[in-house]
Amino acid sequence: MAPIVxxxxxxxxxxxxxxxxxxxxxxxxxxxxxxxxxxxNHFERxxxxxxxxxxxxxxxxxxxxxxxxxxxxGVPFQLREDAANLVTELESRGVAWGFKDPRTCLxxxxxxxxLPAHKLICVYRAPSxxxxxxxxxxxxxxxxxxxxxxxxxxxxxxxxxxxxxxxxGTRLLIDYGKLMQDEYQLERLSSFVGRDVKDERxxxxxxxxxxxxxxxxxxxxxxxxxTRRDVFSLARDISAIGD
Length: 243
Description:
The chain has about 240 residues and is α/β, with parallel strands linked by helices. The protein is built from 10 helices and 4 strands; from the N terminus they run βαααβαβααβαααα.
């Protein structure tokens, strides 16, 4: 089976998708940890996670401050060799496998060169919900709000570009909001990976569902004015892909 790469911004439902794939027999982590999402288990393969951090030269730090896409032509030989060796080792296990890390939205150009033929699952979440997650429980902070939208734009642009590089049968776009409400989305996911995907959805975990409000519109307008990055235009482009 071709490896599965799950793409999507932080807090966009990638953990849920990775969990469901793993529970369905597609190894998405190096070693399963105890606990669920609220205990910090994001179902990320630590080996690919560590490589992504090295690729972006970000050993840690706030994820909202890491949004500059990687230029694959500038990756040092040692990193290329380490990634190739990791893929070879994972392939040698003879089991279905994949990985999920939001940073792959920024580094996919590199991984595309290293991975064998693979499948992409792109997970999209509306900017209003991601913005609500990062700003809803905190005092008004325009800088944080704009930084969230800038990160949303860069990660989702990287995801969309990766999707466009794929071909029918090798790519799938999942809208997190629809996945949480619609059985058809689970059926699409099962059909795409060629096996019944175990339903691990918990409605109560979809907490940030605020609609487009005045603050979001104002901060998006400021981002567009300063950087020419139009969050709502990109959201429409992604949504237009449809089912």
